[in-house]
Amino acid sequence: MYGEILALMAALSFSGAALLYRAGVKNSDIHPLVLSSFRGIFALMFMLVVALFYPVNLAKPPVFYLIVAVSMLAAFVAGDSAFLYGLQRAPVSMVYPVAYTFSISTSVFSHFLLNENLAMKDMLAAVFIIVGVFFVYRGSNSYKSNSLVGILAGLTTSLFWGLGVSTMGLALHWGSAIEVNISRLTMLILLTSPLILNNREKLRKQVKLSYLALGGIMGIGIGPLLFMNSIGLIGASRSSIFISSTPALTVVLSNVFLKEKTSGKLLLGALLVSVGLLIVSIK
Question: What is the pTM of this model?
Answer without folding.
Answer: 0.92
